Amino acid sequence: MDTKSANINQGSASAKSTRNPKWLRPEEITDAHRRDLKLGFLLHDVSRMRRKAFDQFMKPLGITRAQWWVIAHLTRQDGMMQTQLADLLDVGKASLGTLIDRLESAGWIERVADPTDKRAKRIYLARNSQQLLEKMGEYERAFNEQAFRGLTGDDRETLVQLLSVIKQSLPEMNMGDTSTHKD
């Protein structure tokens, strides 16, 4: 094996060892590890199941979750540039463009040229989207009442606080820097 091949092989082996966390042997797994693993799976499963149930719940309105998500963001900041909206939703500009086309065809949103940059488009809620927003709000309240029916108001407040802590900690993790992982 030549020096270049040896360096490549060594480099990929060391990259793999720093990228992947050390896997624990069964005897090293504690109750805390099991609990945290279960918590991770629960967060994932609840999120996936909620999205699926929400899609079914909203189906009578003729709107998809992706469309609902765009409209929901526009209620918070109407008139965003299409590129800003793509970044905020963490979707590609092309796929958002297709979604915006559908929403515009349905009459829920309008694209307007930016006054300072005619190449850029700003996205606004259309006037007739108000009725849809009211219906969506009614459906969402009914959905949440069913989904959270086993939780008291205090439980819900606590859950919001705890999930907010997790949400704030995730962006702080530097996933590109492998030196933060324990070997």
Beta strands, count? 3
Calculate the terminal CA-CA distance, rounded to whole Å.
Answer: 29 Å
Strand content is 5-15%
Largest sheet: 3 strands, antiparallel
Mean pLDDT, nearest integer?
83
Q: Estimate the helix proportion, in percent.
A: 55-70%
How would you describe the shape?
A: globular
Can you describe this structure?
Helix 2 (31-58) packs across helix 6 (129-147). The longest helix has 28 residues, at 31-58. It contains seven helices and three strands. It has 183 residues and is mainly α. The protein is 64% helix and 7% strand. A hairpin with a 7-residue loop joins strand 2 and strand 3. The chain starts with a helix and ends in an 11-residue tail after the last helix. The model is unreliable at 1-20 and 178-183 (pLDDT under 50). The chain has helices spanning 3-19, 31-58, 65-76, 82-89, 93-105, 129-147, 153-172; strands at residues 80-81, 109-113, 121-125. It is globular. A three-stranded antiparallel beta sheet has the order 1-3-2.
Nutshell version of this structure?
With 183 residues, this protein is mostly helical.
Notable characteristics:
disordered N terminus; mainly alpha; 183 residues; three-stranded antiparallel β-sheet
Secondary structure blueprint with pairings:
Blueprint: H1 3-19, H2 31-58, H3 65-76, E1 80-81, H4 82-89, H5 93-105, E2 109-113, E3 121-125, H6 129-147, H7 153-172
Antiparallel strand pairs: 1-3, 2-3
Helix pairs in contact: 2-6
